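Example 3.2
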Amino acid sequence: MTREQIITSMCYTYRHDYGLDRKDTDPSWVAGMTQTERQNLWNTMAQIFDNDIEPRVSSWKPRKK
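Structure, written as tokens:
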């Protein structure tokens, strides 16, 4: 998986409605996210991935049996 695929998957895990479009004028109870909300969530997940996940995964070495 690519970095972008992993981050997108993290977004869907956090918000099941990540891929649904919602307008600014829609009521708050309507499922979905505005483009701004979606970008903010993606940026947050990217920061978590870059700072916490990727460094640990890239330094991981399997144990010898």
